[in-house]
């Protein structure tokens, strides 16, 4: 209560009505001379006082340092909000972690991440500016990075060349070099962790997410545990041998390969076969896409993807490679349209996998043990059998498609998560987030379509992920009448990720390939 009074006392023009603490479902905030009842947002965290997931403690330490604004994202036990430093007006991103749900080991990991991030101060690394520990919560205040993922930006460009790829990898290597000089190994270099500082043309690449990073002494090699993302793991990690800084260079080689042609050097749906490829260093430069890549670029990739870590090129050496430091005369300036097209497909695949993984993590606790729902509350009662859950998922999918066919946006919105992410033909290969993109089609096409539409779902395959998540893949046949009165049929391959919250299934991710979902004629 003392903390709550301190938080409220510093807010000019606001007073507290009743005795409930801010954001904890108490009587609510009110302007002086105004009315109560929960209609005013909390003036500190900007969230409705009855729905703020961070709790009233959030306002204790942050009020003197910054003002928290809208939510930018969330994980199983964390929320990211934009914030403004009061004394300067500068904007940052505040990651708010609910430490009440973390195990002792996870607390150690969090402390290690904060310690490592405090060491790193480089223009190509997302910088940690503040770390605040409070009762039940931990706040990490980072650079506000608004440009999105590097790989998503590339596919939106009108022009992209080998020289552009060289500039990208140079910035990544600069970040890696700084890490290695500070005795830090990232261990999870991948496209999802390569961001752009802003939407401006030529914005700096920023390396993010040091959750798996470790500290090493010099060129120390040791077994630090199995960590990373499958396609970017090095041979020495897969062989469970001693490793160190060279694992980051291997991942850079994989990233550079993708930057040049839009697909990875190692790929197989079977993870065991994928790992065999990596351990053998079994990659090549197939025609015709690699025919237009300069020999110097291939040479750098070969030096990065050297199986023996002792012979692998270092970040310092890679930055001196002619293809990097002399790109204006060495790297090709030809536009690589085929790379952009392949990269769109690659982005779509990894986003779908990311959505499935996020849903899986939301149904388990931070340490990775099954047995808790997405709300973090212990599951009580007898669990629903997998076969019954599969039928539930098929049924709710049919209901969603029926809402689409009927042009019923209200019914559709009830079934979908407000932050629904999707890849679909209408979005031209881009990731769409939220409901506005779909609302347009409902209001301007589907709701006004008086012609009959019939949908058939073929070969539905449901993969149950714990108690509260599932993924369904199916072929969708849509029959409709075109503008000339002729019967038509379109086919699409669709995947939906479902998450059950408070006993109700919600669609959190949608992936469609093939014909548009809705007949546009």
TrEMBL record:
<keyword id="KW-0597">Phosphoprotein</keyword>
<dbReference type="InterPro" id="IPR032710">
    <property type="entry name" value="NTF2-like_dom_sf"/>
</dbReference>
<protein>
    <recommendedName>
        <fullName>calcium/calmodulin-dependent protein kinase</fullName>
        <ecNumber>2.7.11.17</ecNumber>
    </recommendedName>
</protein>
<dbReference type="GO" id="GO:0005524">
    <property type="term" value="F:ATP binding"/>
</dbReference>
<keyword id="KW-0418">Kinase</keyword>
<dbReference type="InterPro" id="IPR013543">
    <property type="entry name" value="Ca/CaM-dep_prot_kinase-assoc"/>
</dbReference>
<keyword id="KW-0723">Serine/threonine-protein kinase</keyword>
<dbReference type="Pfam" id="PF00069">
    <property type="entry name" value="Pkinase"/>
</dbReference>
<dbReference type="GO" id="GO:0004683">
    <property type="term" value="F:calcium/calmodulin-dependent protein kinase activity"/>
</dbReference>
<keyword id="KW-0112">Calmodulin-binding</keyword>
<keyword id="KW-0703">Sarcoplasmic reticulum</keyword>
<comment type="similarity">
    <text>Belongs to the protein kinase superfamily. CAMK Ser/Thr protein kinase family. CaMK subfamily.</text>
</comment>
<dbReference type="InterPro" id="IPR011009">
    <property type="entry name" value="Kinase-like_dom_sf"/>
</dbReference>
<dbReference type="GO" id="GO:0005516">
    <property type="term" value="F:calmodulin binding"/>
</dbReference>
<dbReference type="GO" id="GO:0033017">
    <property type="term" value="C:sarcoplasmic reticulum membrane"/>
</dbReference>
<dbReference type="InterPro" id="IPR000719">
    <property type="entry name" value="Prot_kinase_dom"/>
</dbReference>
<keyword id="KW-0808">Transferase</keyword>
<dbReference type="Pfam" id="PF08332">
    <property type="entry name" value="CaMKII_AD"/>
</dbReference>
<dbReference type="InterPro" id="IPR008271">
    <property type="entry name" value="Ser/Thr_kinase_AS"/>
</dbReference>
<feature type="domain" description="Protein kinase">
    <location>
        <begin position="66"/>
        <end position="324"/>
    </location>
</feature>
């Amino acid at each position: 209560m003392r903390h709550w009074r301190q938080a409220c006392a510093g807010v000019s023009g606001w007073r507290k009505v009743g005795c409930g603490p801010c954001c904890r479902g108490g009587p609510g905030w009110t302007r002086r001379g105004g009315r109560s009842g929960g209609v005013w947002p909390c003036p500190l965290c900007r969230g409705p006082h009855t729905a703020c997931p961070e709790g009233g403690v959030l306002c204790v330490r942050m009020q003197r340092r910054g003002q928290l604004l809208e939510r930018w994202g969330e994980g199983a036990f964390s929320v990211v909000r934009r914030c403004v430093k009061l004394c300067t007006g500068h904007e940052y991103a505040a990651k708010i972690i609910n430490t009440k749900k973390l195990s002792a080991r996870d607390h150690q990991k969090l402390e290690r991440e904060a310690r490592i991030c405090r060491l790193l101060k480089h223009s190509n690394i997302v910088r940690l500016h503040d770390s605040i520990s409070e009762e039940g919560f931990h706040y990490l205040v980072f650079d506000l990075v608004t440009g999105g993922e590097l790989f998503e930006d590339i596919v939106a460009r009108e022009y992209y060349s080998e020289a552009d790829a060289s500039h990208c990898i140079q910035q990544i290597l600069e970040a890696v070099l700084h890490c290695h000089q500070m005795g830090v190994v990232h261990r999870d270099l991948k496209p999802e962790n390569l961001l752009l500082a802003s939407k401006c043309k030529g914005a700096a690449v920023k390396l993010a997410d040091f959750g798996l990073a470790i500290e090493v002494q010099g060129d120390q090699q040791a077994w630090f545990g199995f960590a990373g993302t499958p396609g970017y793991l090095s041979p020495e990690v897969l062989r469970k041998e001693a490793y160190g800084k060279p694992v980051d260079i291997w991942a850079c080689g994989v990233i550079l390969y993708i930057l040049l042609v839009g697909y990875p050097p190692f790929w197989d749906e079977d993870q065991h076969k994928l790992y065999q490829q990596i351990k053998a260093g079994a990659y090549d430069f197939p025609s015709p896409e690699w025919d237009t890549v300069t020999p110097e670029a291939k040479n750098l990739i070969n030096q990065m993807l050297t199986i023996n870590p002792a012979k692998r090129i270092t970040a310092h050496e890679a930055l001196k490679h002619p293809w990097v430091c002399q790109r204006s005369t060495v790297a090709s300036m030809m536009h690589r349209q085929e790379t952009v097209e392949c990269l769109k497909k690659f982005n779509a695949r990894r986003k779908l996998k990311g959505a499935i993984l996020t849903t899986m993590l939301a149904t388990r606790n931070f340490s990775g043990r099954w047995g808790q729902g997405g709300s973090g509350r212990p599951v009580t009662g007898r669990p629903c059998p997998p076969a019954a859950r599969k039928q539930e998922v098929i049924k709710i999918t049919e209901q969603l498609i029926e809402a689409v066919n009927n042009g019923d946006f209200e019914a559709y919105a009830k079934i979908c998560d407000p932050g629904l992410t999707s890849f679909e033909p209408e979005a031209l290969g881009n990731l769409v987030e939220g409901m506005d993109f779909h609302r347009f089609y409902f209001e301007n096409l589907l709701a006004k379509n008086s012609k009959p539409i019939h949908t058939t779902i073929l070969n539905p395959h449901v993969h149950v992920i714990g108690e509260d998540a599932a993924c369904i893949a199916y072929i969708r046949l849509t029959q409709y009448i075109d503008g000339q009165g002729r019967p038509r049929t379109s086919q699409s391959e669709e995947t939906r990720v479902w998450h059950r919250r408070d006993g109700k299934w919600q669609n959190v991710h949608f992936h469609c390939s093939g014909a548009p979902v809705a007949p546009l004629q």
